[in-house]
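Running this now, will post back.
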Amino acid sequence: MSRLPFRSSIYRAGLALVFICSGQLAAAAPVTAVYEAATAQKQGMLDTMKALVEIESGSKDVEDVERIAELVSKRLSDLGGTVKIVPATDVTRLDDTPEKVGPMVHAEFKGTGDSKIMLIAHMDTVYRRGMLKDQPFRIDGERAYGLGIADDKHGVASVIHTIDLLQKLGFKDYGTLTVLINGDEEISSPGSRSTITRLGADQDAVFSFEGGGMKPRLTLATSGIGAVYLNVQGKTSHAGARPEGGVNALYELAHQILQMDDLSKPEDGLKLNWTVAQAGTNRNVIPGNASAQADARALRVSDFDALAKTIDERVQNKLLPDSKVSVKFEVRRPPLEATDASRALARHGVQIYEELDLPLAVVDRPTGGGTDAAFAALKARGPVIEGMGLSGFGAHSNDAEYIIIDSIVPRLYLAARMIMDVSEGKAPLK
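Update: finished.
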């Protein structure tokens, strides 16, 4: 295939404007061919988002997730990818994991280079079946509304149209471009987490297409989310006539919770807060069972490991020797930790955005929430960047979820340029 303009005079001329003699960025201009190609994708992006919104895909409505997976699979296949719909078989059973979990769409695009780059997004939503009628796709000024459009159907569309953009430019200098779109993100990715981690480990860079924020940003760090389930088995007895015949599970539960009140370390971002408790059945019965749940947050994977170990040790110290205490610690999502490599690649993204005369913040300290990018980063050898999606607002709301239409072109330009520069060795990965 002959080289297109971005690979010759236009592309090089655009890059020449980026640098001054010292090698630092000057007043940069966008690479013309890439910018024009991104602009040409705008209406197609809107059409794709509409098609995705019109398929309801709540995480626990597996048949609906399978329907949207078919659409995503076809779109990626039409672009020339080797595509398969992967059922969730290696499922991590969390407290609220449904019996059946939605599938993933896994696609690979082979290029002529050596780099390995992965793009991830999710196609499931938090919404119940039937809510589409209250939040259909519609455009109002510079906003496109729709069920799940901000979280994360725009991300799926962004992946599809970034690949389409690169193909229309004839760019194939990557080695392998891997796409993974999962259908269980909103329930903590129990069926896809192991696949995301496995594939992420072999990439030079991973880009995750969750929303890019109302004020454009890239995200390098998020808090990890954990859960603790504490259960106490005692023995019931009449609370008035024979309380000594019982083993008060509520007493033991209170003891266990109180002896863990020093495990939070807010200064280090480690938080453990007990939020739900249940005990007893009747006022005049010594409770034979009691349970509690806690929310845990951490900034480092090692903090969760240490917390789980400490909790296991603490519950061995019982107030009532005849009670039985069990505890389970779940890592709902590990933290995404910023690295030198992710900071360097994010700075490169800031420089690309400056070509459009637009600001781009980099968030390298956790601000809450959780992300599948954290699973990709667990064993990653390259940088992981979150927040590659569009600007938007109202995720998980019943009537106000939207994306900013004006963010489509800049974000597609950013995604394409990041992939191109990683592929050609022009972006830092260390």
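The chain is about 30% helix and 20% strand. More later if anyone needs it.
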